[in-house]
Amino acid sequence: MPEAPKDPLSILHDRFMDAMRAVMGEALPEGASPMLAPSKDPKHGDFQSNGAMPLAKRAGQNPRALAEKIVAALNIGDIAETPEVAGPGFINIRLKAGALSGALAAMDTAALGVAPVSGGAKPQTVVVDLCGVNLAKQMHVGHIRATVIGDALARLHERLGWKVVRQNHFGDWGLPIAMVTDAVKRAVEGRRLSLASLSLEELEKMYRRAQRDCEADEGGLAAVTRFGLGPKAEAELGAQVAGARENLARAQAALVALQSHEASHYAVWKEISRVTLAACFAAVGRMGANVTDEHTAGESSYAEELAPLVKDLVDRGVAEESDGALVVRLEEFGIKEPCIIRKSAPKGVAGGGAGGGGVTGGSAGGGFLYATTDLAAIRRRVQKFGASKVVYAVDGRQALHFKQVFAAAKKAGYARLAGGGDAELLHAWFGTILGEDGRPFKTRSGENVKLADLLEEASQRAEGAVREKNPGLPDAERRAVAEAVAMGAIKYADLSSDRIKDYVFSFDRMLAFEGNTGPYLQYAVVRIRSIFRKAAEQFGAGEAGAASSAALSLEAPEEKAIALELLKYPGVLRSAADACEPHRLCGYLYELAQAFSTFFAACPVLQATTEAQRRSRLRLCSLAGRVLADGLHTIGIKVLDRM
Ligand code: ARG
Q: How many CA within 13 A on the CB side of residue 542?
């Protein structure tokens, strides 16, 4: 992969590290840094390095003498004047005239200095596993993260020139699903329900009821018998157990029917699936995340592959028997718990488990599991789609599952790349969304908050905020702006904190126009766009065009600061994508918006003293606006012209 073009500050950092290594040799401590920062006083140059002092202290040397040695070893003549040592050992650096403006002009392209990862060769493929909804269940607040983070990661990779394949690993297969399918089918046959008007709400209730109806209280019955609690208790529990066993047997038969695509079961299942996904795509689409039918590969799509896959693993000795189950041992990967790929006996009801998948079907022996399907998914993604990287935006509670599945896939050779080596498999896990009480976010009555309700409430609240901010907006535009602000606010709140952390969901905080929020950044873009509207009014329609190729003169410290900030953009995109950490990009955009505010307050643009200065500054405004808009678009947030 070609290196991203470097901004002057990171070039200086690298060259200082080289010089420090040359001076200190082996004695350079781990984590040593040149501690470069912009100079507070422009008299002293553009940057200051404070790294010599702590280094000298550790090595028992004179700090000024050490600073002199570092300067002597430093090789920065191409971009900076010879540095000066000051005070106890500060090193002052002044960039060569034109070094900063030259670098900035070079990044002022349509791509904003971002080079494609492949360097122009055939793009690499990344699969992003996102959304991950389940059949007959509504999307609730927990699905925000899997969708929003996944979509942002997909966009980040797209921006860097990857070929991105989105995969919504829809939980649509297995015994619990056969249970609800069977229940719906019977309700339809009994004319208690119409297939044509199924609602997801009703389906979710039926899903829960069907599961309960299959849970036999075997333990209770055993206790009643053992302790001789009397014929009445025994009869009651006996009836419960018999009923549940019967329901379970019927669900198992339904699963077999589904597996063989038996028409009447299959049609019902298809309809439940359609209703679930329609609601899912509506909510996801409202959030502006790109997840549709074409990105959806249900667990059912792997059903036929599981038996041959398990056979393959057994034949090659990758899987072995353990207590009647089939497992892949993972000790060599430092994982104690083996990956179970087939359960021992078809007895008992499948537990949902953290994966929400549970048992996903059965063959002659026990059922296949959530992990079995995920192994098939890795094989398809790497070997069929050609992915060299597979990223999973899935809850942190599934960490062990993915550790096991990744290791088992590697052991089985399913992650092997055509050119050798294994694909990078990465669980981009996330924490929980909390309520203001610090506990997992729930409704007042303790239920999961439905995503659709949450989005609607955000939009209503945003409309109030927008009305207050800009009472003059026509109704239709206000509603459109409010919708964009609301979705941006929810997404930005989710993306801007380190994904592995839990965060507190607060409408008030996320919808604020001040602080590190979506609306603040959207507003920063609006402000810059309005500068250009005014420029056109005052100086004619050609002003923006004239500014776009104006000579950049970066004299004021605020001009230099914004230039340096802008130059970081390509590197930030790269690091956010590599680490799968959208919050790095968010933090950067916030800093850029602040640097812009500072610049705009200190440096008159439309009132600049000369035409050359005005156009140079307008070009800075334009770059800032474009980077902000591009960055927001890259995390899936809409930008507006007015708000
Ligand atoms: N349906 C799963 C759940 O609700 C999430 C799927 C995540 N993706 C995957 N490949 N396992 O927990």
A: 2
**Strand-strand pairing, 125-129 and 163-167:** parallel
Separation between Cα atoms, residue 418 and residue 326, nearest integer Å? 28
| For range 447-457, the mean pLDDT | 93
Binding pocket residue ranges, ligand 1, CB within 6 Å: 129, 132, 134, 169, 171, 355-356, 374, 377, 392, 394
Question: 200-213 and 231-259 helices cross at what angle (nearest 10)?
Answer: 120
The CATH number assigned to the domain with range 297-427 reads 3.40.50.620
CA dihedral 337, 343, 345, 349 (to 10 degrees): 100
- Counting every residue written for the chain, the total comes to 643
Calpha distance 490→494 (Å, rounded): 6
Q: Judging by beta carbons within 10 Å of its beta carbon (0-12, 13-18, 19+), is residue 159 exposed, middle or buried?
A: buried
CATH topology of domain 451-634: Isoleucyl-tRNA Synthetase; Domain 1 (1.10.730)
| Distance in angstroms (rounded) separating the CA atoms of residues 324 and 366 | 9
- What's the half-sphere exposure (Cβ side, CA atoms, 13 Å) at 559? 20
CA angle 131, 132, 137 (to 5 degrees): 105
Coil, helix or strand at residue 551: coil
Task: Please answer whether residues 181 and 258 qualify as being in contact, where contact means their C-beta atoms are separated by less than 8 angstroms.
Answer: yes
Angle at which helix 8-24 crosses helix 63-73, to 10 degrees, equals 110
Residue owning the nearest CA to atom 5 of ligand 1? 132
H runs (alpha helix) in 385-505 = 399-412, 451-469, 475-496
Q: Residue ranges per domain, the chain?
A: 8-95, 175-291, 297-427, 451-634
Q: 87: alpha, beta or left, given left = phi > 0 and alpha = psi -120 to 50?
A: left
Tell me which fold the domain 8-95 belongs to. Gyrase A; domain 2 (3.30.1360)
Q: Is the pLDDT of residue 121 over 80?
A: no
Angstrom distance (rounded) from CA 403 to CA 415: 14
SS3 (DSSP) at 322:
strand
pLDDT for residue 6 is more than 90: no
Report the amino acid identity of residue 368.
F
Give 34-62 pLDDT, tens digit per residue. 999 888 787 888 889 999 999 999 889 99
CB 126 within 8 A of CB 390: yes
How far apart, in Å, do the first and last CA atoms of the chain sit?
41
Nearest Cα neighbor of 598 from 570, 631, 547, 564 is 564
Q: Which of 138, 149, 169 to mutate to test the pocket of ligand 1 (most atoms within 8 A of CB)?
A: 169
For 586-628, how does the pLDDT look when each residue is reduced to its tens digit (9 = 90+)? 999 999 999 999 999 999 999 999 999 999 999 999 999 999 9
Query: Which residue puts its alpha carbon closest to atom 6 of ligand 1?
Result: 132
Cα–ligand 1 centroid distance for 129 (angstroms): 8
